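fyi for ur records
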Amino acid sequence: MSLTNGKHIIKEIEGTRCTLLEAGISEERMEFLKHLMELNGYEVKVEKEPKKVQKAPPKVIPKEEVKDQSGQEAKQESESETKDLPEEEIKREEEEEVLPDTYVIGVTRISFNPVIAVYQRMLRNKKGQIVTPQYYNQETDDSRGWYWKHS
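which gave:
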């Protein structure tokens, strides 16, 4: 759940009911949020999502040219002859691409809502500055200023 979604989602992570911060995030994002929440006194639970595998699209092999006995290409004159010939062969290989690891992160305090916490300016970074939406979304390292003054 990012700051653009105001839903309060509860999920069980490592056997504990947690308020979901975000799901399907990279390891770097997970480490950032974990450090930020622990710095603000929240107990954080993290779970690695099961590996996702993406199947490669099928490879298309064009039909071979039909040649007559002299070695030159023969022309197809009637439609009935072309219907019998396969137009293309589809070779399906079981190639699979393994996607990078993704994580689910949450805090054990059920009443916590990250949208409210950020916009009510309740979170602080390691320098003691107020966490802005831009800082929370990792768009900037600068955590100063009011959220409506940033573009």
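The chain has a mean pLDDT of 77. thats all i got for now
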